[in-house]
């Protein structure tokens, strides 16, 4: 059974498969590209106290090419889960200080649940180093509309050499 379809840039970077220019253009035309927004806008449901932090993290992700409008809810969920985890952590710490084992056990369970939600959102968004290493984010290239001038250095040198050989 084949694996999930990989972006054209990743297939080219792996070097295991040669694609002709026509195959590459056709493949790029079938890929879905979501343009990055001009600004990270928080979702309407997100409480106002999270808006500043949402904008800060969203802007960092946007500049790194890891954020689109489709990611608004996940980033908002991350902030809410993190806030709830912090509150549960304070209550668990207070119960431990008061030597109330039953209450401490309840709050550490709640704390673990919110931590798991927070971690899942962070991994999806690429907010940890290990999740960024697993993310495959190809560079945005013009689909099938390459101009002749958009060649690499080797091709330019080869064309110059061929032109000199034809002139001799």
Structural class: mainly alpha
- List segments where confidence is low: pLDDT < 50 over at least 5 consecutive residues: 137-146
**End-to-end distance, in Å?**
55 Å
Number of distinct beta strands: 0
Kindly provide the radius of gyration, computed on alpha-carbon positions and rounded to a whole number of angstroms: 24 Å
Order of helices and strands: HHHHHHH
Number of domains: 1
| Percent of residues in beta strands | under 5%
Commentary on this structure:
- There is one protein chain.
- This protein is mainly α.
- The chain has one domain.
- The protein has seven helices and no strands.
- The chain has helices at 8-14, 21-30, 51-63, 72-97, 101-125, 129-134, 153-167.
- Helix 3 packs across helix 4 and helix 4 (72-97) packs antiparallel against helix 5 (101-125).
- The radius of gyration is 24 Å and the shape is elongated.
- The termini are far apart.
- The relative contact order is 0.11.
- The model is unreliable at 137-146 (pLDDT under 50).
In short:
This protein has one domain (8-167). It contains seven helices and no strands.
List the helices and strands and how they pair.
Layout: H1 8-14, H2 21-30, H3 51-63, H4 72-97, H5 101-125, H6 129-134, H7 153-167
Helix pairs in contact: 3-4, 4-5
Name its key features.
168 residues; mainly alpha
